Amino acid sequence: MTNTTGQETESVRHRPKRTKAAGIATALLLALLMLSGCAAAGTAASVPETTDSESTSSTTTEETITQTASAAEALMATLSDEQSEQLLYAYDDESKTTTWSNFPVTFVDRAGLNLDDLSEEQRTAAMEVLEALLSEEGYETVTGIMDGDEFLLENSSSTGDSLGQYYVAFFGDPSDSDAWQLQFGGHHLGLNATLDGTDDSITFAPTHLGSQPAVYTDDEGDEVQPLAGMYESAFAFHDSLTDEQRAELYQGSEVTNLACAPGGTCSYPTGTGLAGSDLTDEQKQLLLDVVANWVGLSDEETTDAALAEIEATLDETYVNWSGATEYDMTRGGGVHFQISGPDVYVEFANQQGSAGADVDGYTTAGWGHVHTIYRDPGNDYAGSVTQQEASGMGGPGGGAPPGGAPSGEPGDGGAPSGAPEGAPPENG
């Protein structure tokens, strides 16, 4: 497969390979039943009302909270008492701060239920919670990451047990009138969405989105690039700058690891690079477009509210950049950039090693191995708990990354700069 470049990205299909297709198939089936006159109450009851995110996406925060709480309650209705105990945690349980990670689930213990341990009905219900929470584009991003990990499981040289597994957990009782958090994640995915019906607010801080390989081929032979928007919007911002601005922005050719690792504490380094106050209005909007890749996972109103808060302190926000200065995935090792201010912390880092998960004909390091983090220095977890230090890689997998390579294998580095002592190396 030829690597995708900035000029070629329009040909890449940004969609999941299975879950989305299943939703479309269900919608078509329902339409055929209605056209044939068979959609009587008894017949239609056997078809899920909605499994396609296009038909469930809301436009307001209040609608999203209501629909997500309803979907969460529907999931719980399918569970046994034992499963419900595994799924539910207290809203202020501090374990939620360390049970999300870039690592596979066998290296860092996750909270909640493993989707692999659920029945087909229960897995469908779990995914419908995500569909209710996320916009269509956000849902495609998340399921695209998951399908990429399945691709890695099926095709890479990595040990298979650690890949393709995802967990769901609720912190607090799902409600449209109170606060609760949905945590969903596994390898290269850690969603922490706090929904609060008391003030109709949703925050995704903190959240980790990653991808390996960054571009893969689905079962239908289509190319999928779940995080294409991050690359495209970041380079649109970079390319808008003057030579003088780029001189302030650029920190060198070395592509470093994340300074703030998923599931660990963060010192929110700032003050390095180009200040928001030195940007034009157009450039500020382009920078907000970059941030929207993380805060824009849900409905339009939620996204607008988050971006408005960040925009208010954009002059005090700094952005810096290292690595490649052209969007060409066939050259170099990718990029690292950091956006850090009073109300936002975004970091993007291409990992220089594959962590033993190689696939013939695909790029699984550099441009093809993405780690990112989004945090809000003043409102992580909606202020419900304080981030705890990561305890390292728990679970049965021990201390080695996927593939059995030693921790801190060449190119992937050890514990990231600024990470707490004992944090796992950033090579998952």
Offer a few descriptive terms.
globular; 11 helices; alpha+beta; 428 residues; single chain
Large-scale geometry: globular
Q: In DSSP terms, counting alpha (H) and pi (I) runs of 4 or more, how many helices?
A: 11
Q: Could you say which structural class the secondary elements and strand pairing correspond to? A: alpha+beta
Number of domains: 1
How much helix, percentage-wise, in residues? 25-40%
The portion of residues forming beta strands comes to 15-25%
Total E-strand runs: 14
Largest sheet: number of strands, sense, barrel closure: 12 strands, mixed
Describe this structure in words.
The chain contains 11 helices and 14 strands. The chain is of the alpha+beta class and 428 residues long. The protein has one domain. The strands form 2 sheets. Strands 1, 2, 3, 4, 5, 6, 7, 10, 11, 12, 13 and 14 form a 12-stranded mixed sheet that branches. The model is unreliable at 1-55 and 393-427 (pLDDT under 50).
Summarize the structure.
This protein is an alpha+beta fold and 428 residues long.
Layout of helices and strands:
Elements: H1 19-35, H2 41-44, H3 53-56, H4 61-77, H5 81-87, E1 88-89, E2 113-114, H6 120-133, H7 136-155, E3 166-171, E4 179-186, E5 189-196, E6 201-203, E7 208-211, E8 216-217, E9 223-224, H8 228-239, H9 243-249, E10 274-275, H10 281-295, H11 300-312, E11 318-323, E12 335-341, E13 344-350, E14 370-375
Helix pairs in contact: 4-6, 8-10, 10-11
